[in-house]
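A protein record pairs a chain with a discrete description of its three-dimensional fold. The shape at a given residue is found from the number at the same position. Here is what such a record looks like in full:
>
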Amino acid sequence: MNRKSSALAWGLLFPTLAVLALFVLYPAAQSFWLSFQDVEPFSKRSFFVGFENYQVLFNSPDYWQTVRVTLFFLLYTVIPSLVISLTVAVLLDANPFFQNMFRTLFLLPVAISSSMAAMLWIFIYNPTAGFLNYALDVLGIHGPNWLADPDWALVAVAVATVWKEIGFNIIFFLAGLTSIPLELKEAAELDGANSWQVFRYVTLPLLSPTLFFVSVVSVINSLQSFGQIHILTTGGPMGETTTLVYNLYRDAFVKFRTGLASSEAVILFGLILLATMVQFRMAKKRVHYG
């Protein structure tokens, strides 16, 4: 590449790099620096305290409670979302006649905002007038107060989250399924393979890049979930739906503990990075390209 081409390339990249530096790199660096500071509320004064903020978090039972809630929320949302969306995508791929209609129906929740979706689920979960408890009453089952019961609140929020995000996964799985050559499935069927064997030994290995991408995005989205938790439960009852992100929000914008919230942001970033690295590590032997 000559000097003129290099200058042109940098000129084209500069706007993107400038926006990235201004809105991503600089706030991230500032948050990392603030995690070592004790910042006075409503003031620009701050004092360097080293790792004191991290020590406060690691010695706090309440913070470890948020870690536990976050991990359970991750479990309740990612696995059901992947299983359900993959199943629906396989069924739609096998029945192209219904594909356009159902693809639109499943994509509608993705198009609406988190606040609107949460308000819809508030009506569904209403203990006296909600549709869910009404349906359970018809079956002779007494439904709980879903959003106020510590045993059910996290599950209720997870169900609303899966419903909101599942259409995104279905679209990507459908795209991956349509890219698989039909000849390979037909060849497996001619060799005597049944539907499950075709899916297990032909479809799933060829779909593994899409499955890997969707799983990584689902984990990141789950760890960053905020809107539905804030509207449905505000972190309650008794902290059973307070995830790392929601705890960070309360420390930063309710309690105005900027230094502590910044250290929580750094830890959350490390957790997301670790989860992504583990998935990439596992993908080396399980993901087949081409």
Q: What stands out?
A: The mean pLDDT is 87. The domain at 59-286 is CATH 1.10.3720.10 (MetI-like fold). The longest helix spans residues 61-94. The radius of gyration is 23 Å.
